[in-house]
Amino acid sequence: MATKAADQLVSVLMDWQVKHVFGLPGDSIDTTVDALRRHQDKIKFVQVRHEEVAALSAAATAKLTGGLGVCLSIGGPGAIHLLNGLYDAKMDHVPVLALLGQVTTSNMNEGFFQEVNTPKLFDDVAVYNKTVMASDNLGQIVDTAIRTAFTEKGVAVLTIPDDLPAQKETASYQDSAAAFALNVPKVDPKQLEDVASMLQQAQKPLALIGRGAEHAGALVQKFVEANHIPFIQTMPAKGTIADDHPNSLGNVGKLGTKPAYEAMKATDLLFMIGTNYPYTPYLPAEGQAKCVQIDTRPENLGKRYSVDVAVDGDVGTFFTELNAKGSLRDDDRFLKACQKNMESWNKWMSEKRLLATNPASPEAVFATIDQTAPKDAIYSIDVGTSTSWGARFLNVQPTQKYTISAWLGTMGCGLPGAIAGAEAFPKRQNISVAGDGAFAMVMQDFVTAVKYKLPIIMVVMNNQKLAFIEYEQQSAGQLNYEIDLADMDYAKIAEAAGGIGYTARSNDEFKNALAKAYKETDKPVLINTYVQDDAPLPGKIVGDEAKGYMKYGSEYLENYWKIPSMPPLKDIMRQFF
């Protein structure tokens, strides 16, 4: 029995366990969309209002589930809109398939309406990038594209002229989904012995845990506990081990803690576990520490810091065998010193959590979310000061999930992430937090959550500023320019879209609104939260930042004849000493 080539395409997607496709229908992709209509009982097509949201949602699906994220669009303008979200997937190394429409084969290469050279346009973002030229191998090409996306941990792009999926095919295609498995390199026994010896000799070992360890959190936790090792987690790895674990020093870097910074500058043995952490000034000084790095991407080994043992392999496999050796050291002096340092930091943070202000304190807002969120909550945090507060005031647990735009750092990722989380995990509470600048970039898709009855909670931190840019300009010694945003009533926008909108102007009002939001089961809730313009100071103010702030203060005084508003002196002093 003949079937359309588009049905083969959808059949391959189903075999690869794809449950959702995000996108917008349109003329050059409609034959593919029509096949999704015929199989809507197996794959849900989620209609968004902007293709960027489709790609960001597909990327978030891959991050949250470990499976394939899929998005589609027409060719030309729709495909161009996908690029930002696909770069997020590329830079965070997650598998995404983008299906792009194209003019019919008879009109290609004639400069037809909306015809864009998509293979050339997507060349940098894609690990697999092909134009389908015939219908009889469409299933095979889709299968190869998906397999490559998983193998290379990146984006596969298929440009499909719209006449091809409608053609009839008599031959069936057996895809490779059931047989596919990624090879896990074996652990080198000599490397195990070398690591064990280095650990036994170390006095100040420290673990930096990245997203590559998220599937092996329990194994890494067993290792750091048995060997009395303090650990730091990168931002996308939050919750791999509980953020409030006794050995945790939080994050490191501009958004991190002072104890984490100081531990990095003291360590004599650094474990880089599934991470390619890019901010080298926050790593130990070159030559200060020995280093063990475990990563499935060999090109990352030694890229940021010179390594003594470079393990090209899987974190879980490596620590399964290393843990089999039992405890390798019983010296807990460095751990106890770090814990004492962390106690002082946590005491300071606990004071911030209790701030009762009007407008609301962003620290207290995040603390309220942290205290009330379900044990299996899914967080989707946007880029900006929300990222800073999330890093410090959300104690993410292994039973929860946490997604951000880590390497691209694109504003507007929060709402698409929550939509993806609610579609993938409909029984779990999805909470997104975004600044007013970030939310405004994608706010039209709040109606998508309304349409599909997704009970997400969208918290908008409204300070009428691009606040993170404000602090970046200041730390660079520049006067603030064009960072102020016109206020909008986001609660009314939510209501106009058919959802529920609350406005909170104090911590107590936010608590009340959040309590109501948790009770909703079939409507998204937006809490427009007016917050103070608090500065998320770095965990440790380093030399260049200090010089920048001094230059900013001098420039401000010279131009405006008054001293600029700055964070409390006690806060600044704590970051220095």
From TrEMBL:
Gene3D superfamilies: 3.40.50.970, TPP-binding domain (3.40.50.1220). Transmembrane segments: none annotated. Pfam families: TPP_enzyme_C (PF02775), TPP_enzyme_M (PF00205), TPP_enzyme_N (PF02776). Keywords: Oxidoreductase, Pyruvate, Thiamine pyrophosphate, Ubiquinone. Residues 192-322 form the Thiamine pyrophosphate enzyme central domain. Residues 4-117 form the Thiamine pyrophosphate enzyme N-terminal TPP-binding domain. CDD domains: TPP_POX, TPP_PYR_POX. Residues 382-528 form the Thiamine pyrophosphate enzyme TPP-binding domain. InterPro entries: DHS-like_NAD/FAD-binding_dom, POXB-like, THDP-binding, Thiamin_PyroP_enz_cen_dom, Thiamin_PyroP_enz_TPP-bd_dom, TPP-bd_CS, TPP_enzyme_TPP-bd, TPP_POXB-like. GO terms for molecular function: magnesium ion binding; pyruvate dehydrogenase (quinone) activity; thiamine pyrophosphate binding. PANTHER family: PYRUVATE DEHYDROGENASE [UBIQUINONE] (PTHR42981). Belongs to the TPP enzyme family. This is Pyruvate oxidase (Ubiquinone, cytochrome).
